[in-house]
């Protein structure tokens, strides 16, 4: 009864502030990213190869820096300076994309923008984990993801209003992305405080107890399963592409994207909160089952109308997995090494993401969308089996010996 009361408490102010930071930052980013293909091809007159190079460089830089910044924040014993620096770097870089006249400039700026993400991601997650009791971690991370996904709706809407309502061009929209960017930096710099990295004792039976030391076996089994799942988790852009192939008009592509992000945003907080009551493992497994079912049905879809309900259900997978996965990472890693733990988590997912999209693209082109989508479903099912069978039900003795 006490545990249920704890999980139902209001989230701390700092969690809400960090959520607002994510909302503003993603709004600034999403004012630009959906327009980038159009900017590269029509404004700069370049081919899709530049777009691919830009995103490849950007994600490679971000993945490595997520690990390094997490490790560095543990050494400094401070999270906030790196998080502020990461947001500030992105804020200063994004508007400059509206001034570029050559492809190499855009590639460089996008790389710097992702450098900012790499700097802030692991320290920010560690800061969030240390701002809330273990009994609320799932809901706290779910709330943060909900706000981030809400930004993915607000940003494109703002760009649409600026372009259609005020007849502004792409360069001007990119420059105006500085407004929510500056607000992001001011909010995290002025309203977020450093929190001592201390873990209270386990808050209830629903939550996996946070060990005093690193539980290596549980952490690495979890990470292996996450890596396997991510190998089949290609970019959601492929879902939009298949929707168009099934007959959804191209003009509705932004609406599809917004519907997906609305589903993600609405579901993230309540579904992630279930992991505080029933444990991280069953909720994450449920999310992967939802993913496998949706990808299987999406591959078998034969009509445009089927796309819409499937995308809404697909959004539930994010609610069931994103927050609980980060909360589980925080549960398994001791406070003093939490930055490094989140860095390893982000690095593993980043390393798996590139071959995932490459594999999906190859299968799509060589064998058709159904095979590509069913392969993603198979990876999700395999990862769920590995996590269910090999994740230890109790902490290993090693956790008690590791400090």
Supply the key terms.
403 residues, mainly alpha, Growth Hormone, Chain: A, 2 domains, 0% strand, globular, disordered C terminus
How are the secondary structure elements laid out?
Elements: H1 2-7, H2 13-30, H3 36-43, H4 48-76, H5 80-93, H6 103-129, H7 137-165, H8 170-176, H9 178-191, H10 216-231, H11 237-245, H12 253-278, H13 280-300, H14 307-332, H15 338-367, H16 369-390, H17 397-401
Helix pairs in contact: 2-7, 2-9, 4-6, 4-15, 5-6, 5-9, 6-15, 7-12, 7-14, 10-15, 10-16, 12-13, 12-14, 13-14, 13-16, 15-16
Provide an overview of this structure.
This protein is an all-alpha fold. It folds into two domains: about 1-195, Growth Hormone, Chain: A; about 210-403, MFS general substrate transporter like domains (Growth Hormone, Chain: A). It is built from 17 helices and no strands. The chain has helices at about 1-5, 15-30, 35-45, 50-75, 80-95, 105-130, 135-165, 170-175, 180-190, 215-230, 235-245, 255-280, 280-300, 305-330, 340-365, 370-390, 395-400. Helix 2 (about 15-30) runs antiparallel to helix 9, helix 13 (about 280-300) packs antiparallel against helix 16 (about 370-390) and helix 15 (about 340-365) runs antiparallel to helix 16 (about 370-390). It is globular and about 55 Å long.
């Amino acid at each position: 009864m006490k545990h249920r009361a704890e999980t139902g408490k209001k989230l701390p102010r700092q969690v809400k502030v960090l959520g607002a930071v994510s909302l503003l930052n993603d709004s600034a980013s999403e004012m630009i990213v959906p327009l980038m293909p159009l900017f590269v091809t029509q404004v700069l007159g370049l081919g899709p190869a530049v777009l691919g190079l830009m995103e490849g460089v950007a994600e490679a830089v971000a993945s490595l820096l997520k690990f390094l910044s997490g490790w560095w924040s543990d050494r400094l014993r401070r999270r906030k300076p790196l998080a502020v620096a990461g947001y500030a770097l992105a804020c200063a870089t994004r508007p400059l994309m509206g001034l570029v006249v050559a492809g190499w400039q855009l590639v460089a700026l996008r790389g710097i923008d992702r450098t900012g993400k790499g700097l802030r991601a692991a320290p920010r997650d560690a800061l969030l984990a240390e701002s809330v009791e273990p009994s609320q971690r799932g809901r706290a991370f779910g709330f943060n993801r909900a706000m981030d996904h809400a930004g993915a709706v607000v940003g494109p809407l703002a760009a649409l209003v600026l372009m259609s309502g005020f007849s502004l061009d792409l360069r001007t929209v990119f420059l105006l992305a500085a407004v929510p960017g500056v607000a992001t930096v001011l909010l995290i710099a002025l309203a977020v405080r450093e929190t001592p990295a201390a873990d209270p004792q386990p808050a209830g039976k629903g939550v996996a107890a946070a060990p005093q030391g690193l539980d290596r076996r549980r952490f690495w089994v979890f990470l292996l399963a996450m890596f396997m799942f991510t190998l089949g988790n290609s970019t959601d852009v492929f879902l939009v592409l298949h929707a168009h192939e099934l007959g959804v008009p191209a003009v509705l592509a932004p609406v599809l994207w917004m519907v997906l992000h609305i589903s993600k945003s609405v579901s993230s907080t309540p579904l992630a909160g279930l992991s505080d009551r029933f444990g991280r493992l069953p909720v994450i497994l449920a999310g992967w089952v939802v993913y496998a079912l949706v990808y299987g049905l999406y591959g078998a879809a034969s009509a445009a109308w089927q796309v819409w309900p499937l995308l809404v259900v697909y959004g539930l997978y994010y609610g069931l997995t994103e927050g609980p996965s980060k909360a589980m990472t925080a549960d398994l890693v001791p406070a003093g090494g939490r930055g490094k733990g989140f860095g390893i988590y982000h690095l593993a997912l980043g390393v798996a993401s590139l071959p995932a999209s490459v594999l999906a693209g190859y299968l799509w082109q060589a064998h058709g969308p159904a095979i590509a989508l069913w392969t993603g479903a198979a990876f999700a099912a395999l990862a769920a089996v590995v996590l269910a069978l090999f994740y230890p039900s109790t902490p290993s003795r090693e956790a008690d010996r590791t400090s």
